[in-house]
Amino acid sequence: MKKNTKMQKKKFKIYSPKIKEECGVFGISNNPDASTLTALGLHALQHRGQEGCGIVSFDGKKYHSEKRFGLVGDNFNKEKVLKKLPGKFAIGHNRYSTTGGTALRNVQPFFADTNAGGIGVAHNGNLTNAITIRNKLVEEGAIFYTTSDTEVIVQLIAKSKRSKTIDKIVDAIFHIQGGYALVMMTKNTLIGLRDPYGIRPLVIGKLKNSYVFASETCALDIIGAKFVREVENGEIVYIEDDELKSLKPFSPQKIRPCIFEYIYFSRPDSILGGKTAYEHRKNYGAQLAKEDDLEADIVVPVPDSGNAAALGYAQEKNIPFDLGLIRNHYVGRTFIEPSQKIRSLGVKLKLNANLSVIKDKKIILIDDSLVRGTTSHKIVKMLYNAGAKEIHVRIASPEIKYPDFYGVDMPTKKELLASDKSVKEICDFINAKSLKYLTIDGLYKAMGFDKRNNTYPQLTDHYFTGEYPVKIIDELGEEKVTQLSLLSTGSNN
């Protein structure tokens, strides 16, 4: 079993130059096909997590749970599996681990029995005080089964002395801090809530008489649900007797959604702040072009992350846009346990130069972000080897200088290239002819603001500024905390 877990880990870490979002969540009420629709919703949210997936349903009498390693399409694609999940209520979860290890016991949704009845919980985000709370609960006699911060939430709900589940949830969330979006389910209620700043996303949809909660609107589209609105920051929305109800237990705060939802995480067709992520990214590219006086033969995106920004840049500059890099979308499922020789090929497993397009060309290469710089270095080298004359790298976001603690797999500060290197030093490292980033004020301008509000920023942008809206209580030195217990996750439990 240990060997199998190690293979699973390798499967998902063959090629991961990008930062990762922790999870996608989905929930639906009062629908006879609840589990099937949940599986479809999770499929649409697959980009938010590929390590594991799970669904919990309620059939009017009993709760049912299925959790698996791997992709939704590989695990919830057969009728016999979905028949194990009967009922009109269901919640689901895609996992990419940032807190806790890769073990089946950490795959969500979690389920617990309380004195008010059973409750299922699916969580997207990260708690900044989970270890502190966990230690206190253990001292008081609590027993933890997983190494996920989500179990802290479950334990707090179960511990509450309040009689109603919704009141128990209110008790629990007053103890936690961080960036989070939660979808929960009891025998007669579907619940969705966001943290006080709205850092992590959650939307509401309607499908005939059914209400839907999802991390992104693309999950509503796949099942034919109508987008109603976003869950507001600090809001608890619950569906009871087919009626949508709202509760706002926190003192009012101005919303500060995570900027990386706009830059990278959300699927291009998902709606954020009234526009699709695709539109936002095109605008970033157009603004980057306005801040740049460079001329070139062609604009080339790093697929797929740089596509929209590159198109916006090219249209603004009136420079031809072309696919100078071709992406292999199937590499992650081809090599389960690659040899060192194959692994050393690096970026070539996923990208290859399009010779006819780039040979003897002065190229503007565009991507959405630059984290460690190792992949950019390999791509630049690949293009030069394929005959490019000049390569000028343009990044459609500011320099990433600070780590994340709200549910993003962001490296420690020492691993972030821009944390201690100038733009010139980074340019030399990736071996580009020139390098330019979108400015902070340019980023905000592209989103319709005059500039960044330095007194109270419109977005959670600590990646670039080091300004964290929620205090980091569990930070231990320079090391990133990834596990909440002494138990090894090197087993398939």
Task: Describe what is shown at a glance.
By secondary structure, the protein is α+β, with helices and mostly antiparallel strands.
Span between N and C termini?
A: 9 Å
Report the CATH topology name of the largest domain. Glutamine Phosphoribosylpyrophosphate, subunit 1, domain 1
**Number of domains as seen in the coordinates:** 2
Name of the CATH first level of the largest domain: Alpha Beta
In the CATH hierarchy, the architecture of the largest domain is 4-Layer Sandwich
Percent of residues in helices: 25-40%
Number of H/I helices:
18
Outline the biggest β-sheet. Answer: 7 strands, antiparallel
Q: So, the CATH homologous superfamily of the largest domain?
A: Aminohydrolase, N-terminal nucleophile (Ntn) domain
Radius of gyration based on Cα positions: 23 Å
Kindly estimate the percentage of residues that lie in beta strands according to DSSP: 15-25%
> Mean pLDDT, as a whole number?
88
Catalogue the unreliable spans.
Answer: 1-17, 333-338, 476-493
State the secondary-structure class. alpha+beta
Describe the structure.
With 493 residues, the chain is an alpha+beta fold. It folds into 2 domains: 2-256, 4-Layer Sandwich (Glutamine Phosphoribosylpyrophosphate, subunit 1, domain 1); 278-452, Rossmann fold (3-Layer(aba) Sandwich), CATH 3.40.50. Helix content is 28%, strand content 24%. It is built from 18 helices and 23 strands. The strands form 6 sheets. The chain has a 7-stranded antiparallel beta sheet. It has a 6-stranded antiparallel beta sheet with strand order 6-7-8-9-13-14. Helix 6 packs across helix 7, helix 9 packs across helix 10 (277-290) and helix 10 crosses helix 17. The longest helix is centred in the middle third of the chain and has 14 residues, at 277-290. It is globular and about 70 Å long. The N and C termini lie close together (9 Å). The relative contact order is 0.13.
